[in-house]
Amino acid sequence: MTPAEIAAFRFGYGPGPGMAITADALLAGLAKPDSAALAYPIVAGDDLTQMLSAADQARLAAKRHNPRDPALDARAIELDQAVIAASGAALRATLARAVAAPDGLRERLGAFWADHFTVAAPGLHRAIMPAAMAEEAIRPHLTGNFADMLTAVALHPAMLIYLDQSFSTGPNSALGKRKGKGLNENFARELLELHTLGVGAGYAQDDVRELAKLLSGLSWRLRTGFSFNPQKTEPGPQVVLGKTYAGDTLDTVREVLGDLARRPETATHLARKLAVHFVADAPDAGLVAALEGAFLQGGGALMPVYEVLLRHPAALVPEMAKARQPWDFLVASLRALGVTGDDIMAWPGKHLTRRIIKPLIAMGQPWKQPRGPDGWAEDFAAWISPSGLATRITWAMSVPETILRPLPDPAAVARGAFGTNPPDTVIWAASRAETRADGIGLVLASPAFNRR
Amino acid sequence: MIQRRHFLRGAGALACSAAAHPFLTTVTLAASDGGRPLGDHRLVVILLRGAMDGLDVVQPQGDRGFAALRPTLNRPDALPLDGFFALNPALGGLMPLWQAGQLGFVHATSTPYRDKRSHFDGQDQLEAGTGNDLALASVRDGWLNRLLQAVPGVRAETAYAVGREEMRILSGPAQVRDWAPDTRLDLSPQARRLLEQVYHDDPAFLAVANEAMELGIDLDAEPAGMQAPMPELAGARLADVEELVGFVTARLRAETRIAAFSLNGWDTHKAQKTGIGRSLSRLERAILRLSQRLGPEIWGKTVVLAMTEFGRTAAENGSGGTDHGTAGAMLLAGGAVRGGKIWGDWPGLDEADLYDRRDLLPTSDVRVWAAHVIAGLYGIDRATLESAIFPGMQMGQVPGLIL
């Protein structure tokens, strides 16, 4: 493989139209405005709040009407369906961005950070929330500073709901005393364990508890949106990792988040995670150290970290040690088949369900629904398991012919999949298949295509 | 998190992505060969991922501190078990098993994992079966796999694991197979031969692909009864449990002696009453179906162990739920269990009795109970259990758990 082809697999979704992928080109692409977000928009901001609010109000109105009013019920269902449809539209737009991207690095980084800050929806009427968080809190900070991304995520409704922060109350706050309510430490713990320091770092239960007190004012309600609610804020001061925080304001929350983002343990944790995700389950120690150094030196700035990732010799070795995750596999397959972003936008909903949504479930990676807040597994064996591989083979052999009629020559699909140098064995096997569908299936099910 | 059925029904057609979560399940199975190295006894291990609140499942209503710690989770409608403990009503369907002596619980038990209260490390330690003396990362195999390694004659071809997510409890040198019950693989002979060529030079892919092709074809040929229909995605809350258990029981009725799967959805930080009720219903259904589908003879030789990574805080938190804790409860069911009992020393719920002044204090190691079950079922000796299967654990004296 050429260095450009290695980079296309490792940092993107495989070769794309007009591929010329060097580290310089990839970095330059990242520095450019985010045109994909404009081409394939995802509902966010006030429009989203308004949509959710309308649905909630209609649902409440229907519920409160006694006896039930069929018109109100119908209205509530209709608005709920709109919210659910928006979630499907977000999946579609995310897919279109990845398939249409010249190199895919921005989309891969977006997926990496969305997984780092995993959230899942608490129910269908909030199914859009994880995609909204990725759009509003993560994507704008992809090339910025980690502290800003962390802060945006920590104050985003999707996270406040998913890890229960909105339901946590300082026991000595006005509300806590009046109603006998208390803390919920879920978010504070994951903030330390998953989002910043990492579980191996030297923090204790007291740090979790004190951090939960600092965060106790964070609140989200649909009617009022995000707020820092002094009524449920535990009075300060609190001590986290040896530092005393005043403890009663949103500024204190920002301060502690900034401090956590810049800790050396955070640099270590994130450096390792990036190397594991992009390069190898057991990454080169020199690469991890270089990433860590870049993070610390830049005070959490992410572009210098990506620069190390894209240029470090240990990140460019030809051994493809990682398995493409199911989402990556599907995106790369569509690119190899020559499907365009606009094609995907035009697919009827049932096609999106059959070609993408259900296969993702069967392959073990249901859209935005990981098992827990630690996100998707990284190790090879988690994805290339007998049933996981069987499901990929079945998709590779049978789904392309539902997308493209007539099917292209398998050799052309191989060039789309691998660039100018498809593996000989793959070409040999594909040319001996009994049908074009089987030939294409052999290309997409091959080890070379499923590694990165 | 207000979900009303009315709206869920309305939205059912679009529910597929939500339906698979958060209850994804995984099955791992290990089979014995014709020489029957594990004899006739069956062991089913259910991993309850997310930290099940033992105090809510088996409520210590005889403890004077309980009601004050659990103002909303203390259930007056819980079903009396032994005068001190009472069973969460969501497991009410298991009462006939309790009365028949086929159900018991260990209370105030935990793995040796302490203090960080991380689900992920806690589950790793539960599955590795290790103490705190070994670096967790250095342990690559699970304790059920080490059980298989200790039994001569467990053949690689007949030992297999099934699943969509990894079950580390069964991974390791003794070959086990992974399979998810709803996977099918239908290839023409030519496509299959060519695929074998494509995988030929990549050993990691070749091994997995061979297994996939073998299993995909073998399982398609399985007689009726094993092939439960694909669950409809909407309203599949129990259908997936049915399919899972249908698969497990078909295997256990044939060559398989050891099965492990996970039931998720126990991380009840908020509105626990509803959340745990849902998960308990799934656990109840799994156990009842195992007993029904195995039939009296095989059920009589079966033990089901349901275990979790750790328990939850003694007190309710500020949102009708509980946070990560330490000791919890473990469930034993099956015709081979000498049940109708709650095992373990009760540490009490006064603040001074709690671990870290917040969690139920562990008075036993879950590995000890698992070890006694294994010894009782398979006659594995104490030295092997204490050194190889659960390195560093002391079995001590435990009253007979197994008939």
Q: Your description of this structure?
A:
The complex is a heterodimer of chains A (452) and B (403). Chain A contains 26 helices and 4 strands. With 452 residues, chain A is mainly alpha-helical. Among the domains of chain A are: 163-262, no CATH class; 326-364 and 384-450, no CATH class. In chain A, the strands form 2 sheets. In chain A, strands 1-2 form a two-stranded antiparallel ribbon. A two-stranded antiparallel ribbon of chain A has the order 3-4. In chain A, a hairpin with a 2-residue loop joins strand 3 (238-240) and strand 4. In chain A, helix 4 (45-64) packs antiparallel against helix 5 and helix 5 crosses helix 17 (326-336). The mean pLDDT of chain A is 93. Chain B has 403 residues and is of the alpha/beta class. Chain B has 2 domains: 16-180 and 228-389, Alkaline Phosphatase, subunit A (3-Layer(aba) Sandwich), CATH 3.40.720; 182-227, no CATH class. Chain B contains 13 helices and 12 strands. In chain B, strands 1, 2, 6, 7, 8, 9, 10, 11 and 12 form a 9-stranded mixed β-sheet that branches. In chain B, strands 3-5-4 form a 3-stranded antiparallel β-sheet. In chain B, strand 4 and strand 5 (86-87) form a beta hairpin. The interface between A and B is large, with 84 and 76 residues.
State the gist of this model.
The complex is a heterodimer of chains A (452) and B (403). With 452 residues, chain A is mainly α.
